[in-house]
Write a structure and sequence with these properties.
The complex is a heterodimer. Chain A starts with 5 loop residues before the first strand and ends with a helix. In chain A, the strands form five sheets. Chain A has a five-stranded mixed β-sheet with strand order 7-8-6-5-9, sandwiched between helices. Chain A has a five-stranded mixed β-sheet with strand order 11-10-14-12-13. Chain A has a four-stranded mixed β-sheet with strand order 2-1-3-4, covered by helices on one side. Chain A is built from 26 helices and 18 strands. Chain A is globular, with a radius of gyration of 28 Å. Chain A is α/β, with parallel strands linked by helices. The longest helix of chain A has 18 residues, at 459-476. By secondary structure, chain B is α+β, with helices and mostly antiparallel strands. In chain B, helix 3 packs across helix 4 (97-109). Chain B has helices spanning 8-20, 37-42, 44-57, 97-109; strands at residues 29-34, 63-68, 80-84, 90-92, 118-121. In chain B, a hairpin with a 5-residue loop joins strand 3 (80-84) and strand 4. The radius of gyration of chain B is 16 Å and the shape is globular. The chains are: A alpha/beta, B alpha+beta.
Chain lengths: 611, 127
């Protein structure tokens, strides 16, 4: 990575843009080249600094010199004095007034402070149903560049050297895929955008499509130019009606402007895009199954090779990339592969979007540079787990991923280190779990999901995962036996190594990682019949703690079976013969905040010991 | 709409910069309601209706009402961004129709940020 001596941060918030900060940036870039400083000085655009009335604002780092109300004609002087000679120009420097605003700046809030937006750069700031606004924020500028200044091989080369890897989860180098597809013989080629986002708790693709659909379209048109394709499909699951609606509006607008369709921008290039709503099968996120579904067949995978880039849709060379991958493309073309590859780690470049969900304070969508640690995402951005709870594990990559324990939280996030930990980057789902989560139950949940979504074409996945779930269910019900874990491991390895497609190959990951990092929990379930997280119903029972119960009757009103009784203002009783262990009373009891919990779940074992 | 040629895009950019740049427009400000699926599920449609009603009721005609996608912090939806011309944008969170009505009264009419509902001022950092 190239080291710059100075970074010049130009604010590109709406306020500063209105004061011509784009002009300032262009002038800065040109002046820096004129004075031969381009190797030493890096110009970056940033979000709003919250000081718009002093715009346009420029900050020079590492000194932290804050310039305000600049005009283009100030730039040559500024560059010579400060950037070349190292003398900050006093008359442009902002002097803060004494009064401080009581409301924090976006940059001071952990959730936003650690994020860096490339793909989501337009989120929340433009109207996704207006192509003019997209164009206004540098939209379709990359396409212009590709059509007027670059040859198709140059575009492929640029993507290759950017180091961009598939954001759907596999992490295959995008440039290489493009190269294979571009070189594949034949006149007819197809592009496909994979928006069949099916992982529980994942919503990256949906958010990109809803917030900035034109970025995906522009990426695809650039790809079409590079690979010589004239037809593209966007496969979006039909459970995303708003994403489909906004995409269709975007396509119509782009067609009306001549940015899609025939004779794009008057250059004679043709490319059209169609939206294809998927029917909701998880396996269709796998590329060969997706292509089968697009062809109108049952969505089932087929063996690879041949890879789709050689033989894909209707046997023609097909380049299939994920929504986020396509949305990265315009930025790479616009700002250059050198810029892109300066972000991230050795093997994983750029940024990645994660949907941060589960037992976490700030649920949301985050975009971070590769190489950031899980700890930073979960604690600095996500704000950690709930009050009084402790962090237990984070599940990345959905049903194909694994659970990562606290001890590995300082792992830098990139494709390879997550794979090494037994998980995968996946499309970016990140489910945080606290001490109320039973890892055996989690493994069972994810495996159950795969069992139901397995297409049934190959034996290991269809039969193997089902057997694994049966063992897990047995353990959760308190009927686990010695030897079960070994059996489970053997099955997992077999399914992993012999399944046809990615779904089966990765399905055992949740089991394998929980076995690796939380084996003691499995053993407690099997040997001691204990579920310390108080989740597995067969292994727990409920009782009222009379010294804490105020007799408020809130639990009485929610108990679906009438198991809890008792007059107002007196400690209640639980009739265990009626209790179905639904946890409703535990959740609704308010007195855990005051004096611990009035109703406590405890394991059977504990009760036996007490008795 | 006429099909664009190379170079026409720059004209659109110039036009958008002029109108998006509140300072050069004639509008007093802009209210953006974040309408991703998460926002809508949390009640963003009601917020948008309340904004339009309130502006109409107060006979304010120089405020732009816009919609946009998810602002990222889904757990604090519904969210809206209020921007007074020449001032940094302010993000409001956990809104209800009543809250946004009060915010419009205070922030747009009187120019005071409603601190208890505001998350932060400014915008995000892009590369």
């Amino acid at each position: 990575m190239k080291e710059h001596r100075l970074h010049v941060l130009v604010c590109a918030g709406t306020g500063c843009v209105a004061c011509r900060s784009f002009e300032i940036r262009e002038e800065l870039e040109q002046e820096i080249i004129r004075q031969g400083l381009q190797e030493e000085v890096n110009v970056v655009t940033t979000g709003c600094r919250g000081l718009c009335e002093k715009g346009p604002i420029v900050i020079v780092q590492p000194d932290g010199i804050f310039y305000r109300q600049l005009t283009a004609k100030d730039i040559p002087h500024l560059v010579t004095e400060h950037l070349l000679k190292g003398r900050p120009v006093k008359k442009f420097i902002y002097v803060p007034s004494k009064k401080e605003s009581p409301i924090p700046k976006m940059m001071d809030i952990g959730f936003f402070k650690h994020q860096r937006l490339v793909v989501l750069r337009n989120r929340g700031r433009l109207d996704p149903e207006s192509i003019d606004e997209y164009i206004g924020f540098d939209g379709y500028r990359a396409l212009e560049k590709v059509l007027t200044q670059m040859t198709p091989p140059q575009v492929v080369e640029e993507i290759k050297s950017s180091g961009l890897r598939g954001r759907g989860g596999g992490g295959f180098p995008t440039g290489i895929k493009w190269d294979v597809c571009a070189r594949a013989p034949g006149q007819i080629k197809y592009l496909v955008c994979n928006g069949d986002e099916g992982d529980p708790g994942a919503f990256m693709d949906r958010s990109v499509l809803e917030a900035d659909p034109h970025a995906v379209l522009e990426g695809m048109v650039i790809g079409a130019v590079a690979m010589g394709a004239h037809k593209g499909y966007i496969y979006v699951r039909s459970e995303y009606p708003l994403a489909i609606k906004r995409l269709e509006i975007a396509i119509r607008q782009a067609e009306a402007y001549g940015l899609l369709g025939e004779n794009i921008l008057g250059t004679g290039f043709n490319f059209s895009i169609e939206v294809y709503p998927g029917a909701g099968a998880f396996v269709c996120g796998e590329e060969t199954a997706l292509l089968a579904s697009l062809e109108g067949k049952v969505g089932r995978p087929r063996p690879r090779p041949p890879y789709p880039a050689e033989k894909g849709l209707w046997e023609k060379p097909t380049c299939i990339n994920n929504v986020e991958t396509w949305a990265n493309v315009p930025q790479i073309i616009l700002k250059g592969s050198g810029w892109y590859s300066s972000i991230g780690t050795e093997t994983s470049k750029g940024t990645k979007i994660f949907s941060l969900v589960g037992k976490i304070n700030n649920t949301g969508l985050v975009e971070v540079p590769m190489g950031i640690t899980l700890r930073e995402i979960i604690f600095d951005i996500g704000g950690g787990v709930g009050k009084g709870k402790t962090f237990k594990a984070v599940q990345t990559g959905g049903p194909s991923g694994g659970c990562i324990p606290e001890s590995l939280l300082d792992l830098p996030i990139d494709y390879d280190s997550l794979t090494k930990a037994g998980s995968i980057m996946g499309s970016g789902g990140m489910i945080v779990m606290d001490n109320d989560t039973c890892m055996v139950d989690v493994a069972r949940y994810f495996l159950n999901f795969t069992v139901e979504e397995s297409c049934g074409k190959c034996n290991p996945c269809r039969v193997g995962t089902r057997h694994m779930v049966q063992i897990l269910e047995k353990i959760c019900e308190g009927n686990g036996e010695p030897g079960d874990l070994e059996k489970l491991e053997f099955l997992a390895r077999t399914v992993q190594s012999t399944s046809l497609c990615g779904l089966g190959k990765t399905a055992p990951n949740p089991v394998l990682t929980t076995l690796k990092y939380f084996r003691d929990e499995y053993e407690a379930h099997i040997h001691d019949k204990r579920c310390d997280a108080l989740i597995c119903k067969a292994l727990i029972s409920y009782r009222v703690l009379p010294e804490k119960c105020t007799g408020c009757q809130r639990c009485v009103s929610v108990c679906p079976t009438g198991a809890i009784t008792g007059p107002r203002s007196q400690a209640h009783n639980v009739d265990l013969s009626k209790c179905i262990k639904c946890r409703a009373c535990y959740e609704i009891c308010r007195f855990d905040a005051i004096a611990g919990d009035a109703i406590r779940i405890e394991t059977t074992r504990e009760e036996e010991e007490e008795a | 709409m006429a099909k664009l040629k190379i170079g026409d895009l720059e004209k659109i950019r110039e036009k958008v910069r002029k109108t998006a740049g509140l300072r050069q427009g004639k509008s007093r400000g802009k209210v953006t309601v974040h309408m991703g699926t998460c926002g809508i599920a949390a009640g963003a449609r009601g917020i948008l209706t309340a904004v339009m009603d309130q502006l109409e009721a107060s006979e304010i005609k120089d405020v732009i009402v816009a919609t946009s996608g998810c602002a990222g912090l889904c757990s604090r939806e519904p969210m809206a961004t209020v921007e007074i011309t020449g001032n940094p944008p302010v993000k409001y969170v956990d809104l209800t129709p009543e809250k946004i009505r009060k915010i419009l009264d205070e922030h747009i009419v009187n120019g005071n940020i409603v601190e208890k509902n505001a998350l932060a001022i400014g915008s995000e950092r892009t590369y």
